[in-house]
Amino acid sequence: MAEDKVIITYAGKSTECPVIIGTEQEPAMDIANLRDDTGLVTLDFGYKNTGATKSAITFLDGELGILRYRGYDIADLAEKSNFVEVAYLLLYGELPTAPQLADFTSKLQANSDVPAEIATILKAMPKSTHPMAQLAAATLALSGVYAKDSAKATEETIINILAKFPVLVAMVMRNTQGLDFVPNDKSLGYVENFMNMAFGKQASQVIVDAMDKLLILHADHEQNCSTSTVRMAGSSNANVYASVSAGISALWGPLHGGANQAVLEQLEAIEADGGDTAKFVAMAKDKASGFRLMGFGHRVYKNFDPRARIIKKACDEVLNDLGVQDKKLTIAMELEQAALNDSYFVDRKLYPNVDFYSGIIYKAIGFPTDMFTPLFALGRLPGWVAQWKEMKENKEPIGRPRQIFTGATLRPYKEVENR
Ligand code: ACO
Q: Is residue 309 in a domain?
């Protein structure tokens, strides 16, 4: 192997795979000619070793616990920026100037009204429909109203989905609770208006700041399950609403965005069971139990989740400010300590992830548990759209993995009486 290429030889045939080096020096081998040259394909369950694209949006290093959007450290952004500015950064690659930010903000406000038909669709859904299903359906339904150019990454398309999404999330929350919708107030900021529409009253500055921080922390996370889904759906030229709706569905699962709801439900279950954390830690270590500690472990962070550190601090601030004393928080801290000191968790590099703490903050603010994952979606939207836009601008081909077929080889059909 030379430094700039990898040579793969199989059954007398070989291919040269150029080594591509990213700006953070991560090497990858380009296998574009592998199948043509050698007949081989790769097999990589869960894509643990597979780079699906080149991207300039988010960099993370799981070993070092680094997360950066467009080169800016997540801790810096969480402390000094705001969600709208971060959305602009993710989408356009640079922090906005003051006039750019003012223009972006006013366009988001001006385009935030959601058509009445969407409210009708939400109201017509069965009352027991999970908010993530409502959100996926409502987002998809926008494609019926804003079809023009919505498969193209035009400014209009991008602004439209970004502007309407918080309104949709708030409507979904009110609908799930059987409450009337609160009118959209275009004079309010992005987060302020969302909180006002969700709760029917203005939120305090501490809460708005905490929400801003949470949304920033969730805004992008490179090629995770839901983002890859958005890019995959978009690669077929599906419009932005369909692509984001697919991402919402992928985010819903408890191994991904659904973890924040699962964490809180697990803490509630432990509390109801008497609060013996040691018992649940033991269960998590016992493979036969099928039980996992929700909010622990991450596919890429194998040291710590940098978002978890920031959010833990925000969590303390919000709980202090609201004067909340919750037994679930004590349970959460006991679980955290038990896991950090237990060789099972240490050996497997299982640390609390961002969702371990986010649910506790959302609960203290007053969000119902089943809204936690839609809140994750609200934060992730700029990342999804930025990645979708990048995929379009790169003119990436339709996503279509190969497989290793393990089923029956050709066999003759037998009439039913002969089987
Ligand atoms: N509790 C107990 N054991 C665990 C946990 C957990 N939460 N997570 C992983 N393990 C164990 C596995 O059993 C496995 O053990 P083994 O090596 O003895 O077989 C080992 O740790 C590695 O686990 P994998 O599932 O192979 O790790 P993977 O990288 O595929 O999965 C995942 C990562 C899905 C996040 C996993 O850690 C998990 O299920 N965590 C709980 C759910 C969760 O919090 N998800 C949120 C992720 S963050 C986000 O989406 C924003």
A: no
DSSP string, 363-393: HHHT--GGGHHHHHHHHHHHHHHHHHHHHHH
**Ligand 1 touching residue 217 (CB < 6 A):** no
Which residue's alpha carbon is nearest to atom 44 within ligand 1?
295
Q: Is 232 within the bounds of a domain?
A: yes
CA–centroid distance, residue 298 to ligand 1 (Å)? 6
Given 212, 232, 251, the domain boundary residue is: 251
**Domain range holding 149?**
73-251
Last residue of a domain, which of 183, 216, 251?
251
Does the CB atom of residue 296 touch ligand 1 within 6 A? yes
36 is annotated as an active-site residue: no
Q: What is the DSSP letter of 103?
A: H
| Annotation says 347 is catalytic | no
From first to last of the 419 residues of the chain, give the pLDDT tens digit: 447 999 999 999 999 999 999 999 999 999 999 999 999 999 999 999 999 999 999 999 988 889 999 999 999 999 999 999 999 999 999 999 999 999 999 999 999 999 999 999 999 999 999 999 999 999 999 999 998 899 999 999 999 999 999 999 999 999 999 999 999 999 999 999 999 999 999 999 889 999 999 999 999 999 999 999 999 999 999 999 999 999 999 999 989 898 888 899 999 999 999 999 999 999 999 999 999 999 898 888 887 889 988 888 888 788 888 888 778 878 988 998 888 899 999 999 898 888 888 888 898 899 999 999 999 999 999 999 999 999 999 999 999 999 999 999 999 999 999 99
Instruction: Give the closest residue to 174 by CA, choosing from 371, 381, 376, 379.
Output: 371
Q: Please count the helices (runs of H) and the strands (runs of E) in the chain.
A: 18, 6
Is the CB–ligand 1 distance for residue 356 below 6 Å?
no
346 Cα–ligand 1 center, Å: 13
CATH of the domain at 140: 1.10.580.10
Cα distances (angstroms) measured from residue 269 to each of 229, 256, 279: 32, 20, 12
| Same-domain status, 40 and 110 | no
